[in-house]
Each structure stands twice: as C-alpha cells, then as structure tokens.
Design brief:
By secondary structure, the protein is mainly alpha-helical. The chain contains eight helices and four strands, in the order E-E-H-H-H-E-H-H-H-E-H-H. The protein has a two-stranded antiparallel sheet with strand order 1-2.
Length: 156
Amino acid sequence: MPITDFWQKKNAKDGLYPVCRKCSRPAGKRKYAEHRLEKIAYGKKYRDEHPRMGQIYAAKTRQRVLQRIAKAHGNLMVYCIRCGFTDTRALQIDHINGGGRKEIDSMRTWQYYKQILVAPLEEVRKNYQVLCANCNFIKKEENQENYKWRVEKKNE
C-alpha cells in the first residue's frame, strides 16, 4: 500500500498510523456513534471554558489563507497588492472577478477558508488577491460591485 493510504501520526516512529485510512474509517464511525453524546457534551464544556479559542483558531486560519493567497501570487509577505499596506488586521480577501459576497454567503466561514486552502495555487491566483480594506472598497466602487446593494437600499 502507498504511504498516502495511512493517516499521519506525529509521535509514531515512522510518522504514520498502523492502520490504513480505509480500515480505520468504519471503526472510527462506530466509536463516534457509541460515544456521540459524550463527545458533544465534552465539546460544549470545552467551548464554555475556553470562549476565545474559537476566535483564536479562526484568526490563525485567516492568516494561513492570506499567506496562501500571497504565495499563489509569488509574494513572500502578506500585503495589499495595490498600496503595499501590511497590517493583517485590515487586510481582506478580495475576489478578483467580483461575486465574493455570493460565495461567502453560500457557506460558513470555515468552509470558505478550507476551500481556498485546498484549491490548487493556479486557481487561487486566478480568483483571489489580498487588498487592504480601503483598496478593496475603492475597487468595489470602481467596478460598481456595491451598486446593486445601494439600489436595493435606496428603493426600501
């Protein structure tokens, strides 16, 4: 069997689980089904005791997404490609061809991030770029991407 058929295990000698993915899935599903309520209760208790962990994890994942987009464009650092701004708190993921709001609204944030993280670099380069909040807003105004929203708001 190829090595790719085994899960990675950091503390194992060879770095792999002894059972292949195909064989471990049914056992894992069965174990989860048997202990489902306990796992759900544990997760809730953990989230209650560590309320900021979800936010911290989301911020780290967002950083990874920004770095992947920068890497796809051949950049070592994450910065706004229009003005060079580098403070990641104000950097945003921009859809080069517009339509980002529809894509984001169609899924949860973590699904959106995962989609970018697993996509081939060529696809990431073609569809996404990093812009600061100001440049992103200016780009939307120039391309009239906010126009539909304004018209709907005006008619209400």
